[in-house]
Specification:
Helix content: 25-40%
Number of helices: 14
Strand content: 5-15%
Radius of gyration: 20 Å
Length: about 375
């Protein structure tokens, strides 16, 4: 798949109102060779830093491994480029990011097909529903970061198999230099002046952002968390009146003027606005008031990680104030945002720069998400044919 990264659709069941208001080769292939300095556990079985004797021991073990195998982390997605660079600089551990533009299913496939291999991913960043699926397959390792209590209970597996990390809203990005009046709602997108201009970031049967766009469109057109059909009907109408653009929206297509209006996560559209400003483009971002849909992605550790200590240190870094604020600086809403605001560890300027949101977003349950995914899989091709 091509950039930007496509992700499996996810349920944002625990995004708190408060957070939104403030507002992706050195060790043994067995993954069990790093011994703990404290309780005697190996890194592969450690469920917390304390199991290895504390953070200093975890850092030492991870540095000895020297490498972290990541997968499907594009640098322009939720500020992952800065996160990877900061981790490498802080710990001297090389992050090998394979297939940056891959999808959640690609990550799961890599875990299952490379079990026991040194090139297997150590960590994964998955759409929520895929994270739940991976947990049920028994391929994830339980681990609780030091800031575990700052992650809302509804946004983590009680046993530590998976935990939400960052999220955002479906938004409408618009090239104001090529579009006279930018749309701000789904209803606007049907206007004749947007003929051939409205694109999605991928195919909603494979892409989490595109799936989110269909769900948001459903909510804007009389649908509900139990009924995504109005979203499919909306895109059928968008296609019938000539407004739907089948080109997958990416930064490159925006710069070329091929996709002047893009339905995508607000943190991606907001990030593009910052990037495009330096290139003379005026990229406007709006969270549509008539169809608010939000989602988080989840972190997890491969149960058979070839670099088990580095994998656990990576999670500790991501959920530290430093890591959480780097996500925030990428315009995404970190899962510990509410706790960080209370502790005054949040980057206030970055929080203030988030795209404004009004009203209350909708969060489907896992069952509702599964049903919606099946409906989109069965009906998308017909809707836009």
């Amino acid at each position: 798949m091509t950039a930007p990264r496509v992700r499996a659709a996810a349920a944002a069941v625990g995004l708190t109102a408060a957070a939104l208001a403030l507002t992706a080769c050195g060790s043994s292939s067995s993954g069990t060779s790093t011994s703990g300095a404290g309780g005697g556990k190996s890194a592969a079985t450690a469920t917390s830093a304390a199991d290895l004797g504390g953070m200093d021991a975890l850092v030492a073990a991870a540095k000895k491994e020297g490498t972290l195998n990541a997968i499907a982390l594009p640098p322009d997605w939720a500020n992952y480029g800065a996160l990877i660079a900061a981790f490498e600089k802080k710990y001297g551990i090389k992050v090998a990011d394979e297939n940056p533009d891959g999808a959640s299913q690609d990550e799961i496939n890599a875990i299952t097909s490379r079990k026991g291999q040194n090139r297997a991913p150590d960590v994964v960043d998955l759409g929520n529903s895929f994270a739940l699926s991976a947990a049920s397959q028994g391929i994830l390792a339980p681990y609780k970061v030091a800031t575990w209590d700052d992650i809302p209970a509804a946004q983590k597996d009680a046993g530590g198999l998976r935990y939400d990390d960052y999220g955002g809203y479906v938004s409408i990005g618009c090239d104001a230099k090529h579009v006279t009046v930018c749309p701000t709602t789904f209803a606007d997108l049907l206007k004749p002046e947007y003929k051939g201009k409205v694109a999605l970031n991928g195919d909603p049967t494979k892409s989490g952002s595109a799936f989110g766009g269909v769900f948001a469109a459903s909510l804007a057109n009389g649908g509900s968390l139990d009924d995504i059909r109005p979203g499919l009907d909306f895109f059928h109408k968008l296609k019938a009146n000539g407004n739907f653009n089948p080109v997958e929206s990416t930064p490159a297509t925006v710069e070329k003027g091929e996709t002047p209006i893009s339905i995508d996560w607000d943190y991606l559209n907001a990030g593009y606005a910052k990037e495009f400003a330096a290139k003379g483009l005026d990229w406007k971002v709006a969270v549509p008031s008539d169809g608010q849909y939000a989602q988080y992605y989840s972190q997890a550790i491969n149960k058979y990680a070839p670099h088990p200590a580095a994998a656990r240190l990576w999670e500790e870094f991501l959920y530290s104030p430093e890591g959480q604020n780097l996500w925030l600086q990428g315009f995404s809403r970190p899962v510990e945002m509410t706790a960080m605001a209370a502790k005054n560890t949040i980057d206030q300027a970055a929080a203030a720069a988030l795209p404004p949101v009004t009203g209350t977003p909708a969060f489907p349950t896992s069952a509702q998400t599964d049903a919606a995914q099946k409906a989109v899989l069965a009906g998308w091709a017909k809707a836009v044919s």
